[in-house]
Amino acid sequence: MKYRFKPDSKVNETNVLITAQTKNHEVNEIERALEKIQKEEQTVTVTAHQAVYRIHYNEIVFVDVWGDYTTIHLLDRKFKIHQPLRKIEEQLQDERFVRGSRSLILNLDFVEKFRSSFSGTYLAEMANHQEVAISRRYWKKVKERVFQK
To answer: Cβ-count burial of 98 within 10 angstroms (0-12 exposed, 13-18 middle, 19+ buried)?
Structure first.
């Protein structure tokens, strides 16, 4: 494999071109690595505590709503914002995020386990040691996305 860097002051965005005779294992590995880099760069922008924050997708454990406030939960902190959940959902256009209920968006990368509850809902244990309830209405979609990954 050969690679080279070609500086070009006319481009605004980094472009990567892979040239090969066929799409083989090596090309697939390069594509996966590039997708991983691209995912790490995705962010959501929110205003909280009189400041504007850029939060990387790979930091968001889950997002939930209580009353008029939406809370973005990270592993080590959380942001309480006055913004509808649907606005956050519009920014989180990525396959790792899925609705768990009318008031919950999960990041599937942070789900450690699912278990059923006696009320017919499912509970997801998250990497930050919090449990969140997934409604029966949304469970089918969550399950499909989990087994698709």
So the answer is: buried
Q: How far apart are CA 9 and CA 56, in angstroms?
A: 27
Cα(108)–Cα(114) distance, integer angstroms: 11
Contact 126, 110 (CB under 8 A): yes
Residues 13, 96: Cα–Cα separation, whole Å = 25
Q: How far apart are the first and last CA of the chain?
A: 29
Beta strand 97-101 pairing with 69-74: unpaired
Contact residues for 19 (Cβ-Cβ < 8 A; gap 6+): none
Report how far residue 18's alpha carbon sits from residue 88's, in angstroms, rounded to the nearest whole number: 34
Euclidean distance between CA atoms 131 and 47, whole angstroms: 26
* Structure-token pair, residue 132: 């969140």
Beta carbons of 124 and 92 less than 8 angstroms apart: no
SS3 36: helix
Question: What pTM, to 2 d.p., does this model score?
Answer: 0.75
Q: pLDDT by residue (tens digit) across 83-131?
A: 899 999 998 988 899 999 999 999 999 999 999 988 888 999 999 999 9
Whole-number Å distance between alpha carbons of 73 and 142: 19
